[in-house]
Design goal:
Blueprint: H1 2-42, E1 45-48, E2 52-58, E3 61-67, E4 70-73, E5 79-85, E6 89-98, E7 104-116, H2 121-128, H3 133-150, H4 155-160, H5 162-177, E8 182-193, H6 196-260, H7 264-272, E9 280-282, E10 287-289, E11 296-297, E12 303-304
Antiparallel strand pairs: 1-4, 2-3, 2-5, 6-7, 7-8, 9-10, 11-12
């Protein structure tokens, strides 16, 4: 009986061990499957950032080149999505050049702003390669086109019309790079140095031109002042003529009215009289002299107050 119980106990312990191991193995398998599923799920999506565009490859072949920013689906282990920066890129280069009058341009700094054309992104990747754009397209073209354009203008014109030269270079770069899917957005000549003697001569010429312009402006100012004086004098003369004509017309009207109404002058005189009689009234032959009271004197030299005296006029006989 004791042996039987021992044998039975051994069998029971062995069965329990197998069951526990089976459960552990199943748990590990479930965890592995979950991990694999999570890996697969996470690999199904790729995030494309703002300012970039997504290019989807399927076994190395481009199947989409216009994936927008955000979450994009792909088949794990079969498809890949790569980001391409479609924002403005900057390419800078330093070079030397010569103008049409053989003036040397030193330390010529050129700056090109460009971006990739979204509609031609596949062609850029296939034919040039995103990483090869600068070496294959920009390096051989930017400096060459800039030198050719500068070589067609005089040094003085280059200084005075730099913006026009920049526009010419930008237009030529646009024509050359557009077929490759490169969009030129801006071009600038940031610096150019000439021989010091030539720069001094340009500066002197600019100063002389500015002085001449100042003198021309002063001449115009004097001419304008003279014109204003003439205009003012003419206006004054016109005013005097107008006043004279008005006065003449007024006199003419007065004379005309006096001829029609001779008594008007007597009426006007009475209206203007202040009530004081004149000291002498004469008709041209016999004047009448009025002496104020208290000022008359007799033959003896004494004065008679209060009695006016009338002196006969010359030529009359006193009785």
């Amino acid at each position: 009986m004791a042996e039987f119980k021992f044998t039975s106990a051994n069998k029971t312990e062995g069965g329990s061990g197998k069951s526990s191991g089976s459960r552990t193995g199943m748990f590990v398998l479930i965890i592995a499957v979950v991990i694999v599923l999570l890996i697969i799920v996470f690999n199904c999506f790729t995030i494309v950032r703002e300012g970039f565009i997504g290019v989807k490859y399927q076994f190395g072949r481009i199947v989409e080149d216009n994936l927008s920013a955000g979450l994009n689906f792909r088949i794990p282990f079969i498809e890949e999505i790569e980001e391409v920066d479609i924002r403005d890129q900057i390419y800078s280069v330093n070079a030397n050049a010569y103008t049409s009058d053989t003036q040397s341009v030193q330390n010529l700094q050129l700056k090109l702003n460009y971006r990739y054309s979204s509609s031609m992104l596949s062609n850029i990747i296939r034919e040039t390669g995103i990483n090869n754009v600068e070496n294959k397209l920009l390096v051989p073209n930017v400096a060459k086109i800039a030198k050719d354009a500068i070589g067609k203008v005089k040094a003085e014109d280059l200084v005075q019309t730099r913006s026009e030269v920049q526009s010419t270079i930008q237009n030529e770069l646009t024509e050359v790079l557009n077929p490759y899917g490169i969009v030129v957005t801006a071009f600038a000549i940031e610096n150019l140095d000439f021989d010091p003697a030539f720069e001094a001569s340009i500066q002197e010429k600019v100063i002389a031109a500015q002085d001449a312009l100042k003198m021309e402006n002063k001449t115009r100012e004097k001419e304008e002042e003279a014109k204003q004086i003439v205009i003012a004098a003419q206006a004054d003369a016109d005013s005097q003529v107008a006043i004279a004509e008005a006065e003449a017309k007024a006199i003419s009207l007065i004379e005309e009215q006096l001829q029609k109404s001779p008594n008007y002058i007597s009426y006007f005189t009475i209206q203007r009289w202040n009530g004081i009689l004149p000291q002498v009234v004469s008709d041209g032959v016999n004047p009448f002299v009025s002496i104020a009271p208290g000022t008359a004197s007799d033959n003896s030299g004494s004065r008679t107050s209060g009695v006016p005296s009338i002196q006969p006029s010359s030529g009359s006989t006193a009785e």
